[in-house]
């Protein structure tokens, strides 16, 4: 979910500039090169969403002094066990 206002420096990222230019020049403006860039960006996002490569926050907890944290790797139920 988008955060507003965006974090500091977000609008200065090259990837954000490329995405905005691809929308402005390609999708709205009709330039074939920028339209191709826009479609590649959208395809990459869709692929990552389908394949599940986006990071997910599982839990957020406040840790008090004296408490410990144990991190374990758990296999995803989607993947076959080897």
Could you walk me through the main structural features you see in this protein, from its secondary elements to its overall organization?
- The chain has helices spanning 14-28, 32-51.
- The chain is mostly helical and 82 residues long.
- The chain has a domain at 10-51.
- Helix 1 packs across helix 2 (32-51).
- It is elongated, with a radius of gyration of 19 Å.
Task: Describe the secondary structure blueprint for this structure.
Elements: H1 14-28, H2 32-51
Low-confidence stretches: none
Please describe the biggest sheet, giving its number of strands, its sense, and whether it closes into a barrel: none
Q: Mean of residue pLDDT?
A: 82
Proportion of helical residues: 40-55%
Radius of gyration: 19 Å
Residue fraction in strands:
under 5%
Shape: elongated
